[in-house]
Automatic annotation (TrEMBL), chain B:
The keyword Cell membrane does not apply. This is 60S ribosomal protein L14-2. The keyword Transmembrane helix applies. Pfam families: Ribosomal_L14e. It comes from Hibiscus syriacus (Rose of Sharon). The chain crosses the membrane at residues 117-136. Keywords: Membrane, Ribonucleoprotein, Ribosomal protein, Transmembrane, Transmembrane helix.
Amino acid sequence: MAAKRKTPVKTRNPDLIRGVGKYSRSKMYHKRGLWAIKAKNGGVFPRHDSKPKSPAAAEKPPKFYPAEDIKKPLLNKRKSRPTKLRASITPGTVLILLAGRFMGKRVVFLKQLTSGLLLVTGPFKINGVPLRRVNQSYVIATSTKVDISGVNVEKFDDKYFSKEVQKKKKKSEGEFFEAEKGDKKKLPEEKKEDQTAVDTVLIKSIEGVPDLKAYLGARFSLKSGMKPHELVF
Amino acid sequence: MPFKRYVEIGRVALVNYGKDYGKLVVIVDVVDQNRALVDAPDMVRSQMNFKRLTLADIKIDINRVPKKKTLIDAMEKADVKNKWENSSWGRKLIVQKRRTSLNDFDRFKLMLAKIKFWVVFNVLKIGIMLGILFPIPMKAGMVRQELAKLKKETAA
């Protein structure tokens, strides 16, 4: 390959209108310096003959020919990326949860995980919502923001929230009829510490704003006369 | 019941329909039985059907179709903006706008303020009724205090 220029050249032959260049063939010959290339090469254009191909390795005939043509699967260039985050949701936004156990709770948004889910915390001491993942579609973003600068959420990702893998126990006949012992799953101490680590900083910045703590502790509900399409959140 | 507010040159009106909804405009000329030429400092002079206008109590002193600058000066002289904002209609509109623009957090704070106010109010009311808190002659002053509180809260 010829050496590439560091900066690509803008066309030397600007268009007068589409299909008609400003300079004629002979002018362009001189502009492009083809005469210099010829002179360097003894009066002819340099020829670049293709290199002789090394003999390809002898292909063995395949052992198996399928009876019918196998279809090639279509090309898939899809890149998986997290759901597009609404512009109104930024770290520190107060969100209203719309579904699930904590329906109506006002909660602080921390960050978006790679799966697209939102990492959210109550804080736990204020309204009982722990570090939790929440889907963007089940959330109303309010315009209230909390200062989240002191909080470190680097360590939380989707793996942190995965369920523990239960080891399969081989049951003998007698045990089949015994009620399955439901061990109360204790929350590991580590998760409790993570929760307090995130929350203490948050609570400090929340207490800086008057009434914000009570606001986060209260649930949201539609009252008589409230029209959701007219409410400003 | 005779009419009190007339369509005349210089009558200030509120637009109640359309692209310019909520704007205060001045009637600058009458086109025909149904339409007026209407102008405001922040809009291009245009025609508008009278049905889109609600006449206000304010009138300014201008000639037919004044220049924009003359119009603005006349509006300043008549102090249309302040007269409007201090009129009961104007104040109501301002309160309405404030109410619709309330944030979820603002609504929460308003609720807290209302609860606080009414708790105090009711305690004092019962106190007065039972004659415990203050002797009866002080009642008028008390009422005025409650009204002042109410104004302060709802103004927030």
